[in-house]
Amino acid sequence: MSAEKTPTDIADKLKKIRNKIATACEQSGRTPSEVRLVGVTKQVPFEKIREAFQAGLTDFGENYAQEALPKVTALSEANIRWHFIGALQSNKVKQIHDRFSLIHSVERISTLIEISKRTERTQDVLIEVNLTHEPTKSGVFAEDVAQLIEDAQKLPNIRLCGLMFMPPIELVESGQRRYFHDACKLRDRLVTNVTAPHNLRELSMGTSHDFEAAIKEGATLVRVGSAIFGARQYPAGGHSA
User: Fold this and answer.
1) CB-CB contact of 97 with 123 (8 Å)
2) pLDDT under 70 in the chain at which residues?
3) Kind plus residue range of the DSSP H or E element containing 62
4) Is residue 65 included in any domain, yes or no?
5) Which residues contact residue 238 at a Cβ distance below 8 angstroms, ignoring those fewer than 6 apart?
6) Segment holding 179, helix H or strand E
7) CA-CA distance, 150 to 147, in Å (whole number)?
8) Which domain, by its residues, includes 135?
9) Residue 162 lies in a domain
10) What are phi and psi of 59, to 5 degrees?
11) Most buried of 26, 29, 200, 208 (most Cβ within 10 A)?
């Protein structure tokens, strides 16, 4: 049997994931419309992205500018919302500005300043938070988020829309729930720091192995890659999915 995925296989995987999203929402008193599924397409070829799009997925996330931009261009005729979810340095902004509906992974004011200078429209962004001070993870520390939010709101062409989180990979479900609960509570404490047109409605948290726990604790965006497109044949790194 060929290991190559078929359109039906991707459609079936998406159906199963959506069913799990619906169940997690039901168990936590939420509705599935509150949660957006972002298909993570790092090292996923164009044709597989097309298959997922044809199966009804409209949000796709990329980690690296050099890989993302050819896909954005090649699939420009499709009504896709592209998300940038990888670590973003200021010097990379010139490559991605005005190409993504939402940038999830901002952690420095210098990056926001660069986005503000280069964008020709209002750019929606999330602030990535390193909740547990993991040295290998990106993100601003929780105690520094309020200052970054304050500074970001002074910039033109930037609209804060929420926060992004990446929990430690080794957590079991109870630990995942605690982490995501703490993340949601942090967001709730910060809401009073934000004024329109900015908001903190979005919580980008949860990947293939923990998105159900994330949804039960308030996630609005879940970033799912391998559960849709299969396990990648290379060492995991950066912002896994």
Assistant:
1) yes
2) 1-8, 232-241
3) strand 59-62
4) yes
5) 63, 86, 87
6) helix 173-190
7) 5
8) 7-229
9) yes
10) -115, 125
11) 200
